Each structure stands twice: as structure tokens, then as C-alpha cells.
Amino acid sequence: MCGMAHEATPPAPGRVELETRDARLPLHARLRDALAARIASSEWTPDRPLPAEAALAGHYGVALGTMRRVLGDLVELGLLERRHGAGTFVRRATFDASLFRFFRYGDPQATAPTSRILDVRRAVLPPEAAGPLGEAAGATALHLHRLRLRDDRPLLVEDIWLPLPRFAGLDHLTEPHLDGGLGELLYPAYEKRCDIVIASAEEVLTVGAAGAADALLLRCARYEPLVVVERTARTHDGTPVEWRRSRGRAADFRYRIEIR
Amino acid sequence: MCGMAHEATPPAPGRVELETRDARLPLHARLRDALAARIASSEWTPDRPLPAEAALAGHYGVALGTMRRVLGDLVELGLLERRHGAGTFVRRATFDASLFRFFRYGDPQATAPTSRILDVRRAVLPPEAAGPLGEAAGATALHLHRLRLRDDRPLLVEDIWLPLPRFAGLDHLTEPHLDGGLGELLYPAYEKRCDIVIASAEEVLTVGAAGAADALLLRCARYEPLVVVERTARTHDGTPVEWRRSRGRAADFRYRIEIR
DNA sequence: AAGTGGTCTAGACCACTAG
DNA sequence: TAGTGGTCTAGACCACTTT
């Protein structure tokens, strides 16, 4: 009876009011939005569980079943993950190395891809990166130039742009001990050194042609067709914080989609 | 109390036993599989609703909430769709024209794509189609050659292969009044004339080069890069029934993916 | 008006994980 | 063993669609 949308009495002690705007929306939808907002605000981190579902239900004054539905919805949306017996956690992105799902060479299961960072330096954001990142035109940022290989064969060339005040924690890696501080994957480094948790991303695939530099690094002919993947990665609150452009030989490209 | 997995007493009248193998699986999972099997068997068609959730729950002797969860799972899996007040229906595929989501030309919202069927005839299945369709190497099938356009500009060339005993209902279209019997979309024709409901598909994207015939039809240069999409479409029981290969200029190609 | 799915509550019991 | 999520039940009431 408590916590119903049409409830007029003040909330019981320890209970919390939900947004009254959109009061027409079902309780579970308002609850979902309220929790999504708390997740976006980084109130919880991926390494510690949220309060138990029973505690959350009590906090908001809703039935356990309603809270379970809301948490399930947030799992489906990719914001949370639940571990039986352990708790409910904010989700950490796992698509860091996922570019390789597009490019076939060798046995994807058998051989682990590797990274070679060719260059790290401060530079002016190019317009194609400044736009998606919501940064000013002439802003300065950290620029990584990276090669990704499988079996010592170059598969992908990457340019990665990281807006600078925010990624200052990676700045000292500008020194020549290049591969020293960054491991195979970048997202764990973002989290450890800059407290930035990547939560979602958008990728756009197009086809282009190899320039002179691409041809050299990818060991292919100039003007050979390349598949270009541009990724904008975001934190939980939707702020874009990384933009990268990856290029690989179109002949190696193969993408499989399952529809409905 | 009734219908529990460990229930030893015989089912009450009007109640149905679920598979006893996998009796360790939760009730909702066994129920889901049972309903999925009935959907695959074409027991229900997209134009008439399934029995109401209350009837299904009674039939299997489970609580309403359990049946609701199962039906929700099947909606998520893309097998069913629910319409408030109207009922629960087997889902009809809606991705017939979805190739256009890859190719940009004109305003996708403003201009409707059109089809021009260039040829329909019986022919021997090529090996690349016979494999995915699970057909014998030399089998004969119906072959459609089709051009898809937007604003009178050719965007896609398609070769579509339909195994023949099954698609005999389209066979008389081999006569010269080509576009007569097939509309803009093929899947509604499959359903009306051959009783085949497409439910899911797999698409593989690669990059190739334009041959002489492609170049002519797509009005592009020979050897210009093309994006090649190969689709295997299946019925609800997973049987592959259509294989098509579509080609379009890589310069027009743009694919956007949202990750988690 | 009758019948359908959608929301919300309440509570019992089970299975898993961690300290 | 304490605490977490997972399963299942039971039933009240609401919102929508159809006839």
C-alpha cells in the first residue's frame, strides 16, 4: 500500500520520494530512472556491490518484486550486473579489444592479439575528434598512435584521442618508456589512473583507402580498401571521453550479425 | 504447490507435464523451451493470438506470474510480441528491407526504396548458397535477380536463392510479367503464396570488388570496392529457407553500432 | 462489456558466495 | 553461517483493445 503513485501521505521514515514529474509513468519506470541517475552520478563503483535488493526496496518503500524487476531492467540495459550470492554491481565495459571481432586472421581463439604503442604525445584535437567529444575546436588532448597485431601480423592501426584535463593521469607516459605504463588494454588504465569507467560506446563502420602511412604499417598497397571504425566511448552518465579511429585491411574484414 | 518440479502426483485434469529430462532446470526455463517448441512447430500463426496468459498458466498448472515471466522471455528472444488488450502473437520478421540500413543515399526517411526484379528463373543452386541452405550440391532452385533503388539511383544488386520444392508457389512468376506478382517486399509474398514465415536471419558483411555486371548495374567503375552482405534467413524452427547476396558501393556504406 | 495484458504487492523457500 | 540473489506462488487492481 505504501509508495503507490497516488499515495498522498508523506513518506514513512527512511523512505524516499521519487520524482513527481512524470507521475503518470509506472512506478517501475520512475524507479529505474532514479537508479540510473544514481549510477550515472558514480555513487557506486564496479568493485563494490550496491545495497541488497531488499534494502533498496525498503529505502524506496516498494515491494521486493518491483525492485527486482527494476534491477532486472537495468541489467538488460547494460548498466548493472548481478552475481548470485555476491550482490549487484555497476557494470564495467568489456568491449575494449572488441575491434578484433571484425577482423579475421589466424585462429581468433588460439592467438591473443597484442598492442604496440607507436607514439604518445599532446596534440591539438582534430575536428573529427573534437566534434564527437564535445570539445572546442583548438583544444589540446592526448594522442596515442597504436598498432594491433595477431601473430606478429599488423591488423589494425589506431589513433586514439583523450581530452586532456581529464586524462592528465596518463600524461607522464609521454616519455620514451612508451609501452611501460599501459597494458594490452586501455580501459583498465583509464580506470586505475584517471578514475574513468567506460560504460558504453558507439561505432561507425565505413570503407576507405590506405594512405602512405597506413600502407606502410599494415604492409599493404597504397589505395587498398580499408575498413574504418570510428568509436566514441562514454562513461555511465553519457559523457563522451574517448574517440578513436581504427583502420584495417578490408580483405581481412568480416562481420557477422544475427537479426532477431 | 501444483506443477512443481518435484511434484510426484499425476497432473491434475487439464494440466500438462513438462519434459522430465533436465528436471534440474528451473520451471520457467522448461516452460520457455516447451512454448518455443510449440512456436517452432507452427502451431500458432502471426495472425491469431495465442491462448491468454491465464489459460496457458492453467494449462501447465503454474502461477500466472511464472507464465508472464516465460512469455516475457520469449518476447525478449524475438519469438513473440504482446499487444496490450489484444493478445500475445507469434512475431513476424520486419527486417525484409533492412539492407538499406547499411547504405546511405538521399534522406532515408524521406524517400522510399524501390525494387526492380530483373530476372526470375529456375537454376542450379551455386555451392555458396547450397551450403547455408543445407541443400544438395546440384539441387535446382528459384533464382531472383533484383535491383534496389532509391530516387531512381541503383543502390544494391541482389541474387536471391529459394529452394524449389518449398517455394513452388512462386514458380509461375517465371513468366515474363515479372514484377507482377511480387511486391516491394518478398517476405509477405513468401507467407501468402508459400506459407513460409521468416523469423530470423544471419548476415555476414565483407568487402569485395565490382565485376563487369555489377559495375554496369550500380553505375560504378569496375573493381570499385563493394560491400557484400550475405543473408541466410530462417523460419521459426531454424530451418534456413532463403539465401541472398547483396552488393552495394562501399562508398555508400555506413554502419552504426551501439555497444552495451 | 468482456477479455486481454500491465502493474504492484506480499511472502515462502531455495541456491549460491563469502567471511 | 549469514547474507545475497533466484524461483515460484497468489491475488488485487488497472489500462487497453475489441465486439
Walkthrough of the structure:
2 copies of one chain form a homodimer. With 260 residues, chain A is α+β, with helices and mostly antiparallel strands. Chain A has 2 domains: 27-90, Arc Repressor Mutant, subunit A; 98-252, Chorismate lyase (3-Layer(aba) Sandwich), CATH 3.40.1410. Helix content of chain A is 22%, strand content 29%. Chain A is built from 6 helices and 9 strands; from the N terminus they run H-H-H-E-E-E-H-E-E-H-E-H-E-E-E. The first copy, chain A, has a 6-stranded antiparallel β-sheet. In chain A, strands 1-2 form a two-stranded antiparallel sheet. In chain A, a hairpin with a 5-residue loop joins strand 7 and strand 8 (240-249). In chain A, helix 1 packs across helix 3 and helix 2 (53-60) crosses helix 3 (64-76). The interface between A and B is medium-sized, with 28 and 28 residues. Strand 9 of chain A pairs antiparallel with strand 6 of chain B, so a sheet runs across the interface. Chain A binds a DNA duplex (19 and 19 nucleotides) through helix 3. Chains A, B: Keywords: DNA-binding, Transcription, Transcription regulation. Chains A, B: This is Transcriptional regulator. Chains A, B: Residues 25-93 form the HTH gntR-type domain. Chains A, B: It comes from Streptomyces albospinus.
In brief:
With about 260 residues, chain A is α+β, with helices and mostly antiparallel strands. Chain A contains 6 helices and 9 strands.
